[in-house]
Amino acid sequence: MQIAISVGIDAALITFSLALAAFGLAIIYGLVGVINLGHGAMLTLGAYLSWYAVDSGAPFFAAVLFAAVGVGLIGVVFEHLVIRHFYHRPFDTLLLTWGFFLVSTEAIKIVFGTSFRNVPSPFPSAIHTSFYDFPAYKTFVAGVTIVLLLATAFVLLKTSIGIKIRALIQNREMASLLGLNIAATYKMVFGFGCAMAGLAGALLAPMLSIDPYIGNVFLIRSFFVVIVGGIGQILGGTLLGSFFIGGSETILALVSSQVVAQVAVFFIAILILRFRPQGLLGEK
Predict the structure, then answer these.
(1) What is the pTM assigned to this prediction?
(2) Residue range(s) defining the domain that contains residue 162
(3) What gap in Å lies between CA 251 and CA 232, rounded to an integer?
């Protein structure tokens, strides 16, 4: 029983960590249709900006905010200068965001070097209970992920901004005829998605050793999360896809090696997409 509880909690914590990493990609891909191959580089930028702020003496949470805002501003500038001209050409945005990844990775190497960096955890201890000791920082990250998902759900479903965004998704031409500023809405969504990628990189940094390719660890998994969960299903799809990719991998690793578990999960994900291309929660 203790083993089952431990595995279940580990799977849940990994699910929320992966959901946090994939959230920015889900927003940009699901709402504006851009396949953002620069997502991994934005995670990496968030991690490095948080390390730089902490190393300069800033408190951890101020560093996280600095990283989110910094990557968000970079995303807004990138969207304004490049992406906004190619929204109707998805293959071109694919290549452009891949180019952003390559340029950003080399810039990170030039500015920060290639040696490993570390961000101290603000909660290094555990939360002790009668049946399990929860890792404090991973539990905090899970809580932040839940709050972000609920806040985004509230904005999309209960606010005028959310109504405008949903109108844009359903019918771009009609939304434009009704007076919605398409360019500004796209810019806002793209910038927010980039900020969430930077926030994820900053919050995940204490769990990992930071190097110029740290975002690559999450890029492929984030794509599987978004596609398996269902494109456009930003909330439920992200959580379900994260559990399938991250949680299932944790469970399968009990009876096999980590590598075999990863291969098995990705193989099953490919089978799901073969027979249900719209994802688990996506509409036909």
Answers:
(1) 0.89
(2) 15-217
(3) 27
